[in-house]
Specification:
By secondary structure, this protein is of the alpha/beta class. 38% of the residues lie in helices and 17% in strands. 40% of the residues are buried.
Length: 278
């Protein structure tokens, strides 16, 4: 069943692949975003940061205290930190079927949770949640790299205390995967033709979703490395602000819409997904 939120109009700005290695890509952009929101709303831009605990096995979050301090400062001012895979790379055995080859080698090499069985998915989800616990960070959302999840991952999520997940066009309330419409925009910015196509596709999606209560903007580090994609996102945020849309984090929007309840002492409690008890 699709849940219908109220008619308020918002946008959710989401930074993917957040890790010590990718922070230099985002740093100046985030400063510009804050200035943009400051000029419109007299406050910094609320952001949902999709944090990767050990990006590609070479950028461990806990080995970077300065970056942890940066994320903690953002959290303290109202941003949300969510779990985004564990390594953000597909390190499972090679694909054996044409479909798996298409999904894991043609569409992406980073669908970490697409080939995992329930046991391995549970292990990585629990390990990621444990890092958030050690850092004292509340944790509500898990977003799979490339939005790809195996059935084993879905079963693992149902057994843990994560409160939401998402794909490209929807949010899902856990543990039952109740569907919430939330159209999303994302670019493929690795080549000039892809960037040109991404602009065209994004504008068409915007036209179709102009009356949607919420829009999600999914940004990636590679977007920051090209003037056309980086500039597009800044211009789009300005357009949405001018159009009266308000920025929110995912968890704040879900809570405001009455789609999730606020746990007791959640704000700075280090609330975590753990194994469910009877």
């Amino acid at each position: 069943m699709v849940e219908q939120p109220d008619s308020s109009r918002h946008f959710l700005l989401v930074l993917h692949d957040v890790a010590p290695e990718t922070w230099p890509d985002y740093r100046d952009f985030v400063t510009e975003l804050d200035a943009l929101c400051q000029s419109h709303l007299d406050r910094p831009c609320p952001i949902t940061w999709l944090v990767v605990p050990d990006f590609h096995h070479r950028s461990a979050l806990e080995d970077s205290p300065e970056f942890i301090t940066c994320l903690e400062a953002r959290r303290q001012q109202g941003d949300e930190l969510a779990l985004h895979g564990f390594h953000h790379c597909d390190d499972a055995p090679p694909p054996r079927t044409p479909r798996d080859y298409l999904m894991r080698r043609v569409l992406t090499w980073e669908g970490e949770f697409y080939p995992l069985n329930e046991q391995e998915a549970n292990r990585r989800l629990t390990a990621g949640a444990a890092i958030f616990t050690r850092l004292g960070w509340p944790l509500d959302g898990f977003i799979a790299p490339a939005w790809l999840m195996s059935e084993g991952t879905r079963r693992a999520l149902k057994s843990l205390d994560f409160r939401y997940t998402s794909d490209t066009q929807h949010l899902y309330r856990l543990p039952d995967f109740n569907v919430i419409d939330a159209p999303g925009l994302v670019w493929s910015a690795r080549s000039a033709p892809r960037r040109l196509m991404s602009r065209w596709v994004s504008e068409r999606k915007l036209a179709r979703a102009q009356d949607a209560p919420v829009l999600r903007l999914g940004l990636h580090p590679v977007d920051m490395r090209h003037a056309s994609s980086r500039g597009y996102w800044l211009q789009l945020v300005a357009r949405l602000l001018d159009d009266g849309r308000l920025p929110m984090t995912k968890i704040d929007w879900l809570t405001q819409q009455g789609l999730l309840n606020v746990p007791v002492n959640h704000q700075h409690s280090g609330h975590q997904p753990t194994g469910k008890t009877a």
